[in-house]
Specification:
Layout (H helix, E strand, L loop, with lengths): L1 H34 L3 H18 E13 L5 E11 L5 E7 L10 H5 L8 E11 L2 E10 L7 E8 L5 E8 L6 E12 L5 E14 L2 E18 L3
Antiparallel strand pairs: 1-2, 1-10, 2-3, 4-5, 5-6, 6-7, 7-8, 8-9, 9-10
Length: about 230
């Protein structure tokens, strides 16, 4: 009798614990859903963050290193300094290069992150995801404007700062003779809280006549020196 009673008590206890776990899980699920922002609000905050950063930066200097692995196991490289003063264009002063192809065009927005205009992109909020130690909203993008300045892919946005954390995408319409341009960019905040590009892996496929060639470049940005206006 006592053993049967203990068995009933244990069964009841397990049932109560299971019910409590389900109730707790339901509250967590509802809470997580409630904390997710409206997509329009999320894009508004993100674009406002990009605009504020672009407006706030007064001067900027960064060291850029490009490394291009070769088929024979060697690497070609280029070293440069990027400089910006408000009211002027960002400049790239090359220190050394043995690369075969141009290094590309750069603007301040290259280092800060792209705007995501709802009139230029179809955007879907996929969910929450950790990226680089940051809690992020994961967005899926499809460019409505099909040109070299727009991308298709995924963007992770910091849930705390509403700044870009990572971008994995392809250029919507690569310029000839490129048939595909893939990019993978990572951003981190500097001590003042300004989020800036830290690394960029780019993969390009080029078609010339019947031949196709694919190349990869790894670009890093270090030693940022930034002055900002106001707090």
């Amino acid at each position: 009798m006592k053993a049967r009673a203990r068995g009933k008590a244990m069964t009841l206890t397990r049932a109560m614990l299971a019910a409590a776990s389900l109730t707790l899980a339901a509250h967590i699920s509802v809470g997580a859903a409630a904390s997710s922002p409206d997509l329009t609000d999320l894009l508004t905050r993100y674009n406002a963050r990009i605009a504020k950063t672009l407006e706030t930066i007064q001067t900027l200097r960064a060291e850029q290193e490009m490394v291009e692995p070769q088929a024979d196991g060697t690497s070609k490289r280029a070293d440069a300094v990027l400089s910006y003063t408000k009211g002027q264009d960002l400049t790239r002063d090359e220190i050394f290069s043995d690369l075969s192809y141009p290094a590309g065009d750069y603007t301040l927005e290259t280092l800060v992150g792209p705007r995501l205009d709802p009139l230029e992109y179809t955007v879907a909020l996929v969910g929450m995801e950790d990226m680089g130690g940051h809690a992020c909203y994961r967005l899926s993008l499809t460019a409505l404007k099909r040109d070299v300045k727009h991308i298709d892919g995924t963007v992770w946005i910091s849930a705390e700062a509403f700044a870009p954390v990572r971008i994995q995408a392809s250029v919507a319409d690569p310029p000839y003779p490129a048939t595909e341009i893939k990019l993978d960019k990572s951003f981190e905040p500097d001590p003042s809280g300004v989020w800036l590009l830290r690394s960029h892996a780019g993969e390009v496929e080029v078609k010339l006549m019947w031949a196709r060639k694919r190349g990869v470049r790894h670009i890093t940005y270090d030693d940022y020196v930034v002055t900002t206006a106001g707090p």
